[in-house]
From TrEMBL:
It comes from Sparus aurata (Gilthead sea bream). Pfam families: PK_Tyr_Ser-Thr (PF07714). GO terms for cellular component: plasma membrane; receptor complex. The chain crosses the membrane at residues 117-134. ATP binds at residue 201. This is receptor protein serine/threonine kinase. The lineage of its organism: Eukaryota, Metazoa, Chordata, Craniata, Vertebrata. Residues 174-477 form the Protein kinase domain. Its main location: membrane.
């Protein structure tokens, strides 16, 4: 597409949004757009004030029918976006209707404010008393019910893994029925344990260190969440040849095979995405509850084969064999993480899902944040895969109106088996990402989906969203667009 005269847009971006600097020559606070006639503005509401986040040429090259930059609310009004098609039109934001302008100032009188303050203080005192009473109640409840499930799986709580003590299972009680998966290190069986259907991951003696690494993660305190496959215990065959990890059984198998065999409507896709990002957000959290502590954990091998789909259509993370327990805020470090050991693990993970910094070997392994942000890149690819199999995102919109056949990230561009060299060139040097269908821009939720993806697979780890943020945005999407 060419334009008779290049569009000029106001330019103001934070350093982490440097991608915008690449879409046109910048001179001072003006940018000359290379191949779009659209200017864009993003604003965030902080402490009741509208703050500029981005003013630049629009990188998404979407249509921009308006001459002035009309506000569009995003994420429950937390982000405001505007797109327009005249020179420097993004210098100012306009409000389509007076009434839509957010109340950023608080026009209350001093008297009103004093009254409100007095009511608030009173309410806070009452709330404080109620919280103290509730805490006492929950503490005594938790003591009584320490081993009870937080989970929605219907699997009976077989043992308490809340504390650090390990969960030894007598292998004589386990019945192995059929093999459901082979990994590089273990064979996974469907089986029965005390009347419940379970998955049993069997490690040969030679992979004992892999078994121990994964067991260590599952046995961390508070590692119970609906978005993390439920750990039931470990065992050892009497002959000592095999080590076993017993897990909740996921009826639909891996997300990889689920997406190959099924398409989903919008709400089911959103459910997969929400549970996946909530599971990762929990894994990435440092949680203290009374005297137990769950440290931050980076998964480090997030892929469609390491996410399971349960009978209720939600995802659960599994395969923590490459995971790293990260230095806690108190400075105490659980898993050995001396630099030499970590360097040898610089390129853990599944090639296709490796983040640019992991592919290039430039990731800072000593930095907690970096390892978690590498997981975020893989999460973005998984969200893209889920949405590419969502029937409501293609209905009557794509040329054929049918959901494309299942494709892995970069499969259409680089083929079914990628090499590291081709990925480094494509993902790191050319900064390319999986193609987002153009017609999504015309769907009510399309621009939000695109923003979540582009903000999560950014080349700069620091610019990527956190898993908590993605989970929040997906929850906001549910209330906005419940097709
Ligand atoms: N809880 C479960 N419920 C159902 N199927 C499962 C479960 N856990 C694992 N599987 C199946 O077993 C396969 C291998 O499991 P997993 O990825 O944990 O093994 P691994 O040897 O650690 O694999 P990798 O080579 O990726 O490290 C999975 O891809 C999946 O098909």
């Amino acid at each position: 597409q060419s334009f008779p005269q290049k569009r000029q847009c106001a330019f103001q971006v934070a350093p982490q949004n440097k991608i915008y600097a690449t879409v046109g020559n910048v001179s001072g606070s003006v940018q000359l757009c290379e191949n779009t006639e659209c200017c864009v503005g993003y604003y965030v509401v902080i402490d009741g004030q509208l703050k500029v986040d981005v003013r630049a040429c629009d990188i998404a090259e979407k249509s921009c029918p308006d001459a002035t930059c009309k506000a569009q609310m995003r994420f429950n009004g937390r982000v405001i976006k505007c797109v327009c098609n005249t020179d420097l039109c993004n210098s100012n934001i306009t409000w389509p209707l007076e009434s839509e302008e957010p109340q950023l100032a608080y026009p209350y009188s001093r008297g009103d404010m004093m009254k409100t303050a007095a009511i608030l203080i009173g309410a806070l005192i009452i709330l404080g008393l109620m919280i103290t009473a509730a805490k006492r109640l929950s503490l005594s409840k938790e003591r009584n019910e320490d081993s009870h499930s937080l989970d929605d799986s219907g699997v009976p709580p077989l043992c308490s893994c809340q504390a650090t003590r390990s969960c030894e299972i007598d292998v004589a009680d386990i019945e192995l029925e059929q093999i459901v998966g082979h990994g590089n290190f273990a064979t996974v069986w469907k089986g029965k344990y005390q009347g419940s259907v379970v998955a049993v991951k069997v490690f040969p003696a030679g992979w004992k260190h892999k078994f121990a690494a994964e067991k260590e993660i599952y046995e961390l305190p508070l590692m119970k969440h609906a978005g993390i496959v439920r750990f039931l215990g470990t065992g050892r065959k009497p002959d000592g040849d095999n080590w076993l990890i017993v897990l909740q059984y996921a009826e639909y198998g891996t997300l990889h095979s689920f997406l190959r065999d099924n398409t989903s409507n919008w709400m089911s896709s959103l459910k997969l995405c929400q549970s996946l990002s909530q599971g990762l957000a929990y894994l990435h959290s440092d949680i203290r509850r009374h005297d137990v502590h769950k440290p931050y954990v980076a998964h480090r091998d997030l892929s469609g084969s390491n996410v399971l789909v349960k009978a209720d259509g939600t995802c659960a993370l599994c395969d923590f064999g490459c995971s790293t327990i990260l230095r806690s805020s108190s400075g105490h470090c659980y898993r050995q993480n001396d630099t030499a050991n970590m360097e040898s693990h610089a390129q853990l993970g599944t090639l296709r899902y490796m983040s640019p910094e992991v592919l290039e070997g430039s990731i800072n392994l000593k930095n907690t944040w970096s390892l978690m942000q590498a997981d975020m890149y893989a999460l973005a690819l998984l969200l893209w895969e889920i949405w590419m199999r969502c029937s409501d995102l293609f209905k009557g919109m794509s040329p054929s109106g049918v959901v494309p056949k299942r494709l892995l990230p970069y499969e259409s561009e680089l083929g079914a088996s990628v090499t590291k060299e081709s990925l480094v060139l494509y993902v790191c040097h050319m900064e390319k990402r999986p193609v987002i269908p153009q017609h999504w821009q015309l769907l009510p939720q399309g621009p939000d989906l695109e923003e979540i993806l582009t903000d999560s697979w950014d080349v700069e780890p620091d610019a990527r969203l956190t898993a908590h943020c993605v989970a929040d945005r997906l929850v906001a999407l549910q209330s906005c667009y419940s097709i």
